[in-house]
Every structure is written in structure tokens, then in C-alpha cells.
Specification:
Helices cover about 75% and strands about 0% of the residues.
């Protein structure tokens, strides 16, 4: 396999993975739709920071420990599941304890909520505490490393390709969410969005905890 072939083949695999609706898509859409543009980009950058970390660790062979050590994998899996369930429950809880719909202004969210740093932490933790991302890289990335290349350099190049595709897709998601932000920031629509997103995130956590 040549470097060019590896790049095109890996782009196809991670491109399809990126386009598949999942936890990352739900987080980016929900945050952006509520008008938190800075936080939405923070979530995107945090997710891509996690991708970079998994790619680098896999290229160095470190994440192979997740597949070799059942205890390490289980510890990370339960930590990730607990975090996702907690995040989902927090979103759901707020929808049942907020202001009455007629009294809740559209800009009721504090300015501090629209924080790049807070979004980055949320995105990075969501990605780094998901051992399935690490397992994916351990299983897939080595298949696209030509034998005559440096594994670290090539692994980082492929990871950068994944990050670029993720950034492009996230840009499209944020643009689409912005078009609907006026409607989605209404109190009733916001409750519906938070209940839907919170349920999806909590379901991901439960699936991570009890799934295969």
C-alpha cells in the first residue's frame, strides 16, 4: 500500500464514520442551535483534540493496552459511561425545573455558558472517555500504515486527515443549526431539544456501560 492509497482509503473509512449520526453530532448541533457559537466551536475543538490524542497514542502503540488489558478498558468504559449518563441527566433535569415557558426569555442562558473553554472541556472529555474510539484506532489505523513509512509520522498524518474531515463536517452542522437557532431558542423548542439530546447522550452512556 502506498502513502497516497492509504490516505484515500482512510479518508473513505473515517469520512463515513464522521457522517454517521452519533454523540458528537448531537453535542455540536444542540450547542450551536441554542446560540452558543463559541461553546459549539469549543466542543468541536475538544472532540478533535481527543481524536488527535487517540491517533498519537495508537501510533505510539500505547492504546494497544486498552485491548490487551481488560481492567484498563473496563475502567475507562465505566468512567465514560458515568460521564455521559451524568451529562444527559443534567440536560433532562433542567428541562423540568426551569422558568415557566411564558416567563423564560430567549437569552436566559448566562453569557458564561457560551464559553470556548467550557465547550472544549466537554468535547475532549466526551471523546477521551470513550474507549470505543481508542479501540477503533487500534483496530483500524495500523491497517493503513505502509510498511516503509515511519509509523508515528504516518499515523499522525492519517489522524490529521480525520480531524480535517471532522472540522469540515462540524462547520456544516453549525451552519445548519444557526439557520434554525431562532426557532430552537424558544423556551418550548429548547426544552424539546434538551430532552431529545439529553436522552440520546444518556442512552449512549447506558449502551457504553452495558453494550458489547
Amino acid at each position: 500500500m502506498t502513502v497516497t492509497t492509504a490516505l484515500w482509503s482512510f479518508a473513505l473509512v473515517v469520512g463515513l464514520l464522521t457522517l454517521t449520526p452519533g454523540l458528537d453530532t448531537a453535542l455540536v448541533l444542540r450547542t450551536s442551535a441554542l446560540g452558543h457559537r463559541a461553546r459549539a466551536w469549543g466542543v468541536v475543538l475538544g472532540i478533535q483534540t481527543g481524536v488527535l490524542a487517540w491517533g498519537a497514542l495508537t501510533s505510539l502503540g500505547v492504546t494497544a493496552l486498552l485491548t490487551a488489558s481488560h481492567l484498563a478498558y473496563e475502567a475507562l468504559r465505566w468512567a465514560g459511561a458515568a460521564y455521559l449518563v451524568w451529562m444527559g441527566v443534567q440536560m433532562l433535569r433542567k428541562t423540568f425545573g426551569g422558568l415557566p415557558e411564558q416567563d423564560a426569555p430567549e437569552d436566559a442562558a448566562p453569557a458564561a455558558a457560551d464559553s470556548l473553554a467550557a465547550g472544549w472541556r466537554q468535547g475532549a472529555l466526551t471523546n477521551l472517555l470513550n474507549p470505543k474510539v481508542g479501540a477503533f484506532y487500534v483496530a483500524v489505523l495500523p491497517q493503513f500504515l505502509p510498511p516503509d513509512t515511519g509509523h508515528l509520522a504516518m499515523g499522525l498524518l492519517l489522524t490529521a486527515e480525520h480531524i480535517l474531515l471532522g472540522l469540515l463536517w462540524s462547520t456544516a452542522l453549525i451552519a445548519c443549526a444557526r439557520l434554525l437557532s431562532t426557532w430552537l431558542r424558544r423556551p418550548r423548542s429548547r426544552r424539546l431539544l434538551d430532552r431529545l439530546t439529553g436522552s440520546v447522550i444518556a442512552a449512549f452512556g447506558i449502551r457504553l456501560a452495558f453494550g458489547d
